[in-house]
C-alpha cells in the first residue's frame, strides 16, 4: 500500500509540474489512485487485514484512542485481579499452618471444590 501511495503521489506531483488543467482526465485518475491507495493503507493499519479488505464490526471503525482506552481498562482489571489473588495467596501461605488446615478441613474442601465448580 505504501508503494501505491508513493506512486500516486508521484503522478500527482508530475501532473502539477506539467501544469495540467485541474479537470484533466489524467489528474482525475491520479487523484482517484491516491485516494484508493490511502483508503487501502488506512484499512490495513486500522483492521490488521490484507490490502483492500473492508473493515468488519464496530471495533474497526472506532478511533484509535477509544481502542487504546479499552485495552488500558482491560489490562488494569487483570492487574488488579492478579494483585488481589497474590495478596490472598500470600496471606494463606504466611498465616496458616498444617494444624489449622487439619482442624478446619471442611473449609479446605469447600474452597477446593467451590473453585472447581466456579470454573
What features would you describe in this structure?
- This protein is mostly helical and 119 residues long.
- It is 76% helix and 0% strand.
- It has five helices and no strands.
- Helix 1 packs antiparallel against helix 2.
- The radius of gyration is 30 Å and the shape is rod-shaped.
List the helices and strands and how they pair.
Layout: H1 2-17, H2 25-47, H3 64-95, H4 98-103, H5 105-118
Helix pairs in contact: 1-2
Key terms:
5 helices; mainly alpha; single chain; 119 residues
Structural class: mainly alpha
Q: What is the overall silhouette?
A: rod-shaped
Helix fraction by DSSP (H/I, runs of at least 4): over 70%
**Poorly predicted runs:** none
Radius of gyration: 30 Å
Outline of this structure?
The protein has 119 residues and is mostly helical.
